[in-house]
Design a protein that fits this description.
mainly alpha, Serine Threonine Protein Phosphatase 5, Tetratricopeptide repeat, 9 helices
Length: 223
């Protein structure tokens, strides 16, 4: 290679280097910003994950502490505090769990109104999945159904007993019990029998229905 060619190559390389530096000075901030965004986004995600895990742990600890109280009033007060605490912020599901426990505690202590009130906080929360709200509705109908308008109660149970509903067979059981209350024993037996034969019914419910059918004098077939 001649000296001229070598000189030209050096000049060409220098020009390329100058152009590269010029491009970097002009657009390098984009790459830096991209790196900052990626690193910052990853850090933010990890922080949110850690925060959610800490809140879940705190919620669980609070529930355990509340339920280990020996005094019923103390348990109810602790559960009320959990239901209103920061641990449930942004988590309707945790709020529902706390409300169900509070309702159960109120029911056990004979406070039916308090039990229903706790369940209504779940029923009225539009952010909750139907799984929670349907369960709250069913428990309200069981606890407070006798004080409701009969037609409204029947309509609510019918909605819960539709195919595909999560608590369909439990709602059907309540419908059968209502038939018994109004003296429609034959219709109740027919519905109880249908529940017992339903493929989706839990074994515990099937056993309970079987006992009811025996008490009603109906023919039952144990499989």
């Amino acid at each position: 290679m001649s000296e001229t060619d070598s000189f030209i190559d050096e000049v060409t390389e220098e020009v390329r280097r100058d152009r590269l530096f010029a491009i970097f000075r002009k657009y390098g901030w984009i790459g830096i910003l991209t790196i900052v965004v990626i690193v910052g986004g990853a850090s933010w995600t990890e922080w949110k994950k850690a925060k959610a895990e800490a809140a879940a742990q705190s919620f669980g600890d609070a529930l355990v502490a509340a339920m280990t109280n020996n005094d019923s009033a103390a348990r109810a007060k602790a559960l009320t505090d959990v239901a209103a605490g920061d641990q449930i912020a942004g988590s309707p599901g945790r709020a529902a769990v706390a409300a169900f426990l509070l309702s159960a505690e109120a029911e056990a202590s004979g406070d039916r109104a308090g039990a229903v009130a706790a369940l209504k906080t779940v029923l009225d929360d539009s952010d909750l999945a139907p799984l929670y709200r349907d369960l709250a509705q069913l428990k309200i109908l069981i606890l407070d159904g006798a004080t409701m308008d009969a037609a409204a109660r029947d309509q609510a149970l019918a909605a819960l007993a539709t195919p595909g509903a999560p608590y369909r067979t439990l709602a059907m059981e309540q419908q059968a019990l209502l038939l018994l209350e109004v003296g429609k024993t034959d219709e109740a037996i027919t519905l109880f029998s249908a529940i017992a034969e339903d493929a989706d019914v839990a074994q515990s419910q099937r056993g309970r229905i079987g006992q009811i059918l025996i008490a009603l004098g109906a023919d039952t077939a144990e499989g």
